[in-house]
UniProtKB/TrEMBL annotation:
Membership in a protein family: Belongs to the glycosyl hydrolase 25 family.
GO biological process: carbohydrate catabolic process; cell wall macromolecule catabolic process; peptidoglycan catabolic process
Domain DUF5776, residue spans: 215-285, 289-355
Entries under Gene3D superfamilies matching the protein: Glycosidases
GO molecular function per UniProt: lysozyme activity
InterPro entries in UniProt: DUF5776, GH, Glyco_hydro_25
Domain of life: Bacteria
Pfam families assigned: DUF5776 (PF19087), Glyco_hydro_25 (PF01183)
UniProt protein name: 1,4-beta-N-acetylmuramidase
Length: 362
């Protein structure tokens, strides 16, 4: 049986690769490369001056472009400072809003708690600037930091001696499988990755949804915003920009009192239990819990850590085991418990049906 080498989907570059010609980028594309990720910054002191020109030439031949920041932070304040600097450098390098700005996390491993605090602080600023976020790290660190991103995890480096036929880290966005690829027109060695999702290969995407005018027809009880969403005093004010009381950040858990449908249009709004009103547009809002629709979810991944119970009643006395972020679970069925759901596994045990705890894989 003939086995194939992993695909050449993504090439990441830096000042180590120097000037890369348009011809070399064209060669990369002919080999199947779809996206280029350039280093733009390091710490709070280094801007990669090769980034702007290389990204411009990559873009000119039809490659998607993104940026990465080499992290040096060890504290939350340090992470914030580096994030602001990374955003500044990404903009200077021509990385467009909606593209990915990666945190290259491989310098300091200070343990699960501190790593998560710092990387989450970094991610928050990157997302607020209009970039999508992902985290790059080595395979040996995947249990030391939360690297989940909207249902999938980050970008993982692991270089097997013979990667032929391998698909390591297939539940992640991408696997960097070599650091020694060659392309015609350059004497440099390049890092190459295989993509398992379109997170990088689809290029820049809007940080706000296109209004598809598709609204909830039922009350899910619990919801969360996909994007920053405005809350209003009255249902009549929703969507008009006036009467905004507050804004809810993405992934904020919200409790719904009722769904209110328009009698004359397809529009609908949610009244929250706190008395405020928000849109019920499905492009902006997602139901927090998986539904019991048969076959709707077959596999999930732990986002921040997951507990497994032997009963649908989640009480400490029924706790069986705890799992770290990134753990995959195969789902037998979704079970409704009051206004929430549980995911029953093949062994008959249960984990939460909350999408912010266990997110959809397939």
């Amino acid at each position: 049986m003939v086995t194939r080498m992993p695909r050449y989907d993504i090439v990441d570059i830096s000042n180590n690769n120097g000037y890369i010609s348009t011809a070399t980028f064209r060669t990369m594309r002919s080999k199947g490369v779809k996206a280029i990720i350039s280093k733009v910054s390091e710490g709070t002191y280094y801007y990669d001056t090769t980034a702007k020109g290389n990204l411009s030439r990559a873009k000119s031949v039809g490659l998607k472009i993104h940026g990465y920041h080499f992290a040096r932070f060890t504290t939350v304040s340090g992470a914030r400072a580096e994030a602001y600097y990374a955003v500044k450098c990404a903009r200077a390098a021509g990385v467009p809003k909606g593209a990915v700005l990666v945190c290259d996390f491989e310098s300091y491993n200070r343990g699960w708690s501190e790593n998560n605090a710092t990387t989450h602080a970094f991610a928050k600023i990157v997302k607020a600037a209009g970039y999508r976020y992902d985290l790059y790290t080595m395979g040996s660190w995947i249990n030391s930091v939360s690297i989940n991103n909207s249902g999938r995890a980050g970008w993982i480096a692991n270089y097997p001696y013979n990667p032929s036929g391998m698909k390591l880290y297939a539940s992640y966005n991408a696997w960097q499988w070599t650091s020694s690829a060659h392309f015609a027109g350059s004497s440099s060695r390049f890092d190459v990755s295989m993509a398992y999702s379109d997170f990088y290969t689809k290029g820049a995407t809007s940080t706000k949804p296109k209004n598809k005018h598709e609204y909830f027809a039922w009350n899910p009880k619990w919801i969360y915003p996909r994007f920053t969403v405005a809350a209003y005093r009255t249902k009549a004010e929703v969507g008009h920009g006036k009467g905004v009381v507050k804004y809810y950040k993405p992934y904020t858990k919200l409790h719904v009192k009722q769904l209110i449908k328009s009698k004359t249009t397809k529009h609908a709004v949610f009244e929250l239990t706190n008395g405020l009103f928000i849109t019920a547009n499905r492009a902006w809002i997602n139901n927090l819990y998986f539904t019991t629709t048969k076959g709707a979810v077959k596999r999930v991944k732990s986002v921040h850590g997951t507990n497994k119970y032997r009963s649908k009643k989640f009480d400490k006395k029924y706790l069986v085991a705890s799992f770290r972020a990134g753990t995959l679970f195969d789902v037998a069925k979704v079970v409704k418990v009051g206004s929430v759901t549980r995911l029953q596994l093949a062994d008959g045990k249960y984990i939460s049906g909350n999408k912010l705890i266990n997110n959809f894989v397939k």
